[in-house]
Amino acid sequence: MSAGTRIAAAPASLWRGPLLYAGMAALLIGVGVLQGWNVALSILCFGLISAIMALGVNIAWGYAGIFNVGVMGFAALGGLAAVLVAQPPVAEAWAAGGAGLGLSLLAVAVTVAIIVLVRARMARGAARGWVTAALIGAGYAAARAAFDPAVDAIEAVNPASQGYLGGLAAPIVLAWPAGGLLAALAAWGIGKTALGLRSDYLAIATLGISEIVIAVLKNEDWLSRGVKNVTGLPRPVPYEIDLQASADFVARAAALGLDPGEASGIAVKGLYALMFAVVLGVLIWLAERALNSPWGRMMRAIRDNETAAAAMGKNITRRHLETFVLGSALVGIAGAMMVTFDGQFTPASYNPLRFTFLIWVMVIVGGSGSNWGSVLGGFLIWFAWVEAEPLGLWLAGGVVALLPEGSAAADHVQAGAPHMRMIFMGVILLTAMRFAPRGLIPERTGR
Amino acid sequence: MTDILNALVLFMNFVGVPALAYGSQLALGALGVTLIFGVLRFAFFAHGDLMAFGTMVTILATWGLQAMGVSLGVLPTALLALPFGAAAAVLAALSADKAVFAFYRKQRAKPVVFFIASVGVMFVLNGLVRIIIGPDDQRFADGGRFLFKVGEFRDWSGLSEGLAIRTTQALTVVAALIVMVALFRFLERTKMGKAMRAYSDNEDLALLSGVDPARVVRWTWVIAAVLATLAGVLYGLDKSFKPFTYFQLLLPIFAAAILGGIGSPKGAVVGAYIVAFSEVMVTYAYRKFAMYLGPQDWAPEGLLQLLSTEYKFSVSFLILVAVLVTRPTGLFKGKVF
């Protein structure tokens, strides 16, 4: 990764990847034996989702060197897609405010059209700038005049449980590609303006857009209920309660020596894990195919020497846009899958440390540029993130034992323990960068 | 006439004064970011958390002083505690440099490597702050609340609108001005300041002229950390201290530094005030303001607010994008490599 790092002369052993994956599987099995299979499967499901996000980030970073710090925003857009696709529509809200929203959308469209027309006819200069600004102002006022009452009307419809437009009542699995599409559209818009800037500027810009996405999702209640959250999203798998009520299932669980409660949890999470694994499998197959295709070689050529690639006639900005959009789409898919798994959409729970920077730790630790490495990083870092909490509590327990029981200091240490994971993550990232800058499974080069 | 004066006072009270204070806090943060960028040549992503770290130590020291019965009268006790916080932040920044960044400097790694490393530093600082003081809101302002209050201003001027200036706001502006003047004098007059500017302009030439890079780097961290602590403490006194809010300040701070031209201290200050004023002006509801200026007995429908306060980050973002697209070097011709 860094220019001065010596690259090991011998290529990494072919066995390294499979061995590391086997080790990861052993860790999960260990959790299953020690902490229960429900916990292990839940870590596996989130690990699969994290792996897809890490794969998405790696496509932009490893293939093209694009530093995207807006992962959280794209993941949240994927989550929004789950709401918009799967929730039943609220007919009353559409009747109350649908027309007003349409009108404000029309006002925006008309404003844009007028601005484009006027700008085409006027000569460059200050006058054109002022006219454009005035038109933007007028269009904004017109759109707001239609928008505000419509939103008030929508949010007044049964606010305790609805107060939003609802979705399409389609199967929630369709939300996964839809989430990818939504994220890809957003990425296209951002990429069009911000790509081609130097990497740290792009980083700040993507950080900004992700904060804005979260702010919109928190405040536009008509869209997805804002901080009131959408809960009880439909599921692609059976409910635990239904399984427990089925005599057949209970009998089968008993045959395996499990009680129905635990067995139903395992069955549901197992089904999710299977579905997520299929998605990850397809995506990694596509990503590997792309990387080894002429397109992938071109991408790496651009990454390694932009000037030379440009001289060969490669359109660098366009290729960068492609990878940025593709990578963001993967993050959107994973975001939709995560909301499906959680069964609820809670905009306030999106935090850049967990949704953006943690994914970056996964990619760097796993190996930038290496798809299998990033996926492994996704599993491993998610595992570490989850298990850091009991570890922190255990460490805190050791400290607390030395302090007087029930004292303020003991409570304080106990309360701070979960935050130990931040320090763990920082140390893991810094250690990996320093001592294994090419990651656990380095990108294979020179073939 | 009185209507116009009333409108002006109203505007000053809700936009002018708060934005001036906020801009001063941003300016101190942006100066640190821009200095680090100029000398070390990377965007230091942990700046918000460094601010939080320094502020946290200041708060702890403030509590300690308060418990001992020490107070500054009208001024907040936190001013006395500030040196402790600044010292802690300097220590944190220097240790981060020694443990992390020095290695990559020796390797002459690409800026993006430093950048990712600063994310690691951010995680560690963030974790420390959350463990030590917790993720919740803390208020630590004491002393006199107001320089003068709305009612006092109204009685004095006879207008129907009042103007209030909080002690913390006045303190922020005064302190920021003093520090900025001192910093610019340092950069212009002293040998070290000149060395820093030379190093930032042209590293190789500066090295040839006998500038000691290790000292320049050390001084940069010291100054940036002190500025970060000051910015954080003033922001916390003015509003409140919450670790996550400090992380989010990264965006307006970087917007300010880039708008001014990253690497240019003068630009950082100007950019900070522009960002602060735009943010406050765009999220202010102009209803009453318009009522004073409009015809008698006329009231506009709605609040006349361009964007709700929750979207204030989008203002920094829009400024950022506009600058990057139209004039990437910023107002004062910063560096673009």
UniProtKB/TrEMBL annotation, chain A:
It is found in: Cell membrane. GO terms for cellular component: plasma membrane. Pfam families: BPD_transp_2. It comes from the Bacteria. InterPro entries: ABC_transp_permease, LivM-like. The keyword Cell membrane applies. The keyword Cell membrane applies. Keywords: Cell membrane, Membrane, Transmembrane, Transmembrane helix. The chain crosses the membrane at residues 12-33, 39-59, 66-87, 93-118, 130-147, 167-189, 201-217, 266-287, 324-345, 357-384, 391-410, 422-441. GO terms for molecular function: branched-chain amino acid transmembrane transporter activity. PANTHER family: HIGH-AFFINITY BRANCHED-CHAIN AMINO ACID TRANSPORT PROTEIN BRAE, HIGH-AFFINITY BRANCHED-CHAIN AMINO ACID TRANSPORT SYSTEM PERMEASE. This is Amino acid/amide ABC transporter membrane protein 2, HAAT family. It comes from Albimonas donghaensis.
TrEMBL record, chain B:
CDD domains: TM_PBP1_LivH_like. It is a multi-pass membrane protein. Its main location: membrane. It holds the Pfam family BPD_transp_2. One of its GO terms (molecular function) is L-isoleucine transmembrane transporter activity. GO terms for biological process: D-alanine transmembrane transport; L-alanine transport; L-isoleucine import across plasma membrane. Belongs to the binding-protein-dependent transport system permease family. LivHM subfamily. This is Amino acid/amide ABC transporter membrane protein 1, HAAT family. It comes from Albimonas donghaensis. The lineage of its organism: Bacteria, Pseudomonadati, Pseudomonadota, Alphaproteobacteria, Rhodobacterales.
